[in-house]
Amino acid sequence: DDGLRRLYSSLPKNGFGRLDHQAVRYALHRFFLQRHGWFIRGLEPSQATWKPQNNQSFVKEWVPSFLQEVIEKIEGQRGSDLHDIAAIAATLEDLVHREAQERMAMVYEAHGRDRAEALTRDDVDDVLSTYFMSFLVANNFSTDGDQELKMKKARFKRTYHNYYASERWFQKLVESHLDGPQGESLDASYDLNAVSDVANSLGEEFHSFNDVECDDLRSALQNMES
Hints:
The protein has helices at residues 2-10, 21-36, 59-74, 82-110, 121-136, 146-159, 163-178, 192-225. The chain is mainly α. The chain contains 8 helices and no strands. The protein starts with a helix and ends with a helix.
């Protein structure tokens, strides 16, 4: 990746011509912020090395350290080169995609769908709208039955700030994956992998919508001051 290569080239190297522990964290931290708008706990440049605890809630924070320590052991603790850092970045992206698929499977269950079931386009839209709501609240969402789900989605649309603008952005993303140039559905049905691809793109691209929102707000504030 050109962005990662430029970051690697700009950072100071150790005596082996590689990046040390903290520089690797900084490179990955900047890479994911610039590429996807992701802030991955455990990649903060100031984060000290620490040992994982036997608790699932700490896994995401521990994984970056774990991956880096494994590579450094293989390399004899001489530091990491561009190939090593790219391997860590690719692994982290894969972990994020797997998590998105698991979250999508949970949404399937909330809709009473089996993860092996192929969905029609209308069903996909319904499932994705629930996933999008869950995404916007950082997966802090639960439901008990179809009626409660419908009520929560209706309430969320009324109360979430700027929901309809974000929903329009998301619909364009969905259409880019599932529709042809004339707006026709590309397939008669969609499996979990196809629907999860949309979820992956949401996680990777939503920062672009936030950037536009921030620019609009900044412009509005400047107009108020002028």
